[in-house]
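Limitations
The structure tokens in this dataset are predictions for the assembled complex, not deposited experimental models. Users should treat interface geometry with appropriate caution, especially where small molecules or nucleic acid strands are included. An illustrative entry is reproduced here so readers can see what is and is not provided.
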Amino acid sequence: MHEYSIAKYVLDSTLSSIGETPPERVSKVVISIGKMAGVVPESLDMYLKLLAQEVGLTRAVFEIVVNPVEFKCNQCGQTFEPNKELFWCPHCGSSNVTFVRGNEMAIDYLEIEEEGP
Amino acid sequence: MRNFVFEHLHGHGAPQEKRRIEVGKNILDANEKVAREVHELYTKRGVLLVNVVGSPGSGKTSFIKSLTPHFKVAVLEGDIASSVDAKQFARMGVPVIQVNTDIYGSACHLEAPWVRDKLELLLEYEPEVVFIENVGNLVCPSDFNLGEHERLVLYSVPEGPDKPMKYPPIFHTATAVAITKVDLAPVMELDVREFEQNVLHINPNVRIFNFSIKVPSTVEEVAHYLNDKRQELAKEKSK
Ligand SMILES: Nc1nc2c(ncn2[C@@H]2O[C@H](COP(=O)(O)OP(=O)(O)OP(=O)(O)O)[C@@H](O)[C@H]2O)c(=O)[nH]1
Ligand SMILES: [Mg+2]
Ligand SMILES: [Zn+2]
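Predicted assembly:
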């Protein structure tokens, strides 16, 4: 449910990144979300589409890239992607593992269409 | 970086130029910035700020109440609506401010910009520890830093042992996890060690407490831990 809030942060941040450019010129917003960020991409996408109209980002397409979760095994040194039930190392079975990445939430870049010269 | 795309748009036939703006920013930057300011203010004053999160009914209010004899406490109470919990603190003479998220679209979490001024105000009571009782939810509060020194996740025995796998982010961001209502474990024929194991799989270094409002020694253990954190803060302050 907090996807609504996150969508608002995305839109605010987009508007502040384009400065004086009219918001309707934004054609693309690329976002990356780690699988462990606790965000449902479909839900975020829905709110983005809904709220973008209200703030003038009328032509923006939102692209959400979902990044995998990565853990590192402290026993054998290999990295792995855990599944829902298994948070131990699939290579050696150790449960001495450390989270590496997968909870990030970032706006990567925007694309703006400009009038030709 | 510029790339030129030749397209016919709006019929005027001019080549359309596409400009790319690299943003590379955390989506919640605006929240983080306010959270950092709150964190610095509390650190400067030497007041420990504890964000208490957990499912509805996991025992957040009871937990905070049980710690009031150990510290000079103030509370920020977050709920979607009502001030039922806040009233309990007010009746005990504990300074409390209520935040209802129904004015923020009934949000299932608190955000730093909504609570900053209230957290500043609570400092006027000269508390030793300020507890934030977050909105009862195991998903949404995990992404929103409020500037806390400690993020305490309350995980109650009746919720069953598999919650950490189902809701990893909140357990991953916790500084400590209190398994609450442990007095119910024998009654429910549940093994608290299984809860602990599952928490450790998600967050191998987190501090885990077994907690029950009915077992004073478990309350004291948490009080000790928080007191140690206060001492660390005092050291940092005097640096
Ligand atoms: N047996 C037992 N019951 C407890 C314990 N802690 C809390 N409870 C009971 O659990 C219920 C919910 O406790 P609260 O402290 O109100 O929980 P909460 O997380 O603040 O609830 P919300 O604010 O509504 O989300 C109450 O009936 C408490 O009496 C405990 O350690 N053992
Ligand atoms: Mg409560
Ligand atoms: Zn391994």
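Some entries come with short summary sentences. For this one: Residues 1-13 of chain B have pLDDT under 50 and may be disordered.
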